[in-house]
Amino acid sequence: MDILKIGKYLLIPFAVLISFVPVLDPFNAFSNLRNNSFDIFQNISPRKSLASDSVIILDINEDSINAIGQWPWPRSTLAELVDKTRLSAVLGFDVVFAENDRTGSKELKKLYKKNELLLSALDKVPNNDDIFADSIRNHGTVVLGAIPSNKEINKSFNLKFGLIEQGDNPRNFLPSYKGIQTNLLSLDNAAKGIGSMSIGTNDSIIRKLPLFENANDTLVPSLPLEILRVAIGATTFQIKSSNASGENAFGEKTGINHVKLGSLIIPTNQDGSVWIHYLNQPIKTIPIIDILDAKYSEEFFDGKILIVGTSAPGLFDLRSTPLENNIPGVSIIANLTDQILSGQFLKRPDWIFGLEIVTGLVLSLLITFSIQFSGPIGGLILFLFGNCLSFAGSFYVFNNLNYLIDPISPFLICLIAYLVVTFFNFFFTELERSKVRNAFSQYMSPVMVEKLAKSSESLKLGGERKEMTFLFSDIRGFTSISEKYKEDPEALTDLINNLLTVLSNEILNNEGTIDKYMGDCIMAFWNAPADDPNHRVKAIDAAFAMSEALEKLNKDLNRSDEDLLSVGIGINTGECIVGNMGSNKRFDYTVLGDSVNLASRLEGQSGNYGMQIILGKESIKNLDKHSYRIFELDMIAVKGKIEPVSIFTVFKNFNNQDANYNFSSEHTEFLKNYRSQNWAKAKEHIEKYRFSIPEFTLYYSLFLERIDDLSNQKLPEDWSGVFIAKTK
Q: Does the model's pTM come out above 0.85?
């Protein structure tokens, strides 16, 4: 089947699949962008008006701190604040009093244990914490803060409310903690309510707050929710989750649907949190020093919802919201408290996410078809028009219906679809032209292909002198292997193609250029056309990779031990002529030179020496001896040559047993004894290592035969140990 003909139609299912990327939400990218879009909506259209003027912040501001002293203040001062606001409907503290008053008599006694006169006097002084607790109790509607913790502290605390749970267990959906940091027991017992001050799972911007949290299986209401419970005189919360009567559950764990408090019904997200719709005006704030200085009468606070918090930067309770940066955390609590009273809630039901996916799917399909029939410009027009409608519709329902519909997910789905479809349209159009380039890449390195593509001068006849590294590989025993395929030449062709493919891939992966194929033999080179200072290393690494690839191919083809395919490789480095050679009408980029021929001869000798890889002396220059184990094998005059050359082999993973630790130096000594005609010493080394070092078994067997033959001959005194090869 022609991929060029069906390629464009394959883009349609791609457009469908890309629509589901928001479900995966890689790196939380879609979630973050979605939140940013909701932030923009809030900035454009914040909540317009207060539910009432009853919510007031009592501020521990810098003026109050300057007048009263550094925080924490004496509890007797806070008791005075509680007393002066005794007519309020509720007094909530966005503060935790977990430790004794540092100025109280109990703490002073610890500091002056040996001063009996002072201790006696302190016994007569009322303790500040007790004074504060009495004021809280007398007030009757004070709510204290608490902080959920992942430390196992205060695993249980005194609940001040009743709880009705309908449907699935809400604990399965709520943020969970091991414990909770509460106040001194005397203060908790005196308070009418205790609420969590946690900001939940928000990032640096507070967009929503949890109404409940799960602290060691105990449901803890948020501070705004508990403040409202006490303010309206309710005693019970009702949590309605999925699978409750009248509530749909489309999945196994859909989540919490709403919380009911008296006549107030608060719709929630699945995790029990509420989106905060921030006001476009500040909530009334009174510095605490003004109350203590009696600038406000007690009657002023009659029926008010008062929340104590701090705006002082030094107390580190500054937060960021979609509308502002660095605002007091107590302002967020006050905003949510007022929002619940107003009954104006931002809603994002489960079905909205599905709507966003469907919107993105429909638009991406329309854009795909538009590009196919009208080109990129037609697709771009539809992309812009469709997403403008999506953004406008999302803002309309936010502003008028308080629904949070994300325009970013459909936009990104369409953007990805548009870019990818446009790209592949161009790709499929240009694919025919690239066939020539692909054909070159089958036997040339990518660098060579690019050079030929960029410069027409590269296609002219001629060459240059250059040091290069050459590799020849040949499948051992391939003639006998071929005989087994006499009756099935197609299978032999498949085998050759498989062999050449896996071996060629490793050469190309190591930036080599394949010069030519000669039956089952491959000729390749490095350091041309582009310079490569690591050409020796890359050629050797290619040889190792070819060996590993062949092992894998043997396993994939399930070849028996007697029928395994093995490769011999010769590598040499030296000067040659490299360039385009041939006729004016037909030429190849190839190499010529004596160094090239030597590489071919070394490959032919690899089987004789029982080694997979044989290298010329120039190929081991500057190699990292820690990365490779290199051994000299012999001095040989290859067939057709008079001048001898030293040949070597190389291993990446060699036998490293402790017993063979000195093998390398002893092998060098063996060659010295052999060349000195010290046959006894040489044979002693062979007997020691011939079978204990399996990599050298065939090699030492060869030398044992040579020694037996040479020891019966009268050799000249200046005999250097050079072996004259009779075969290629």
A: no
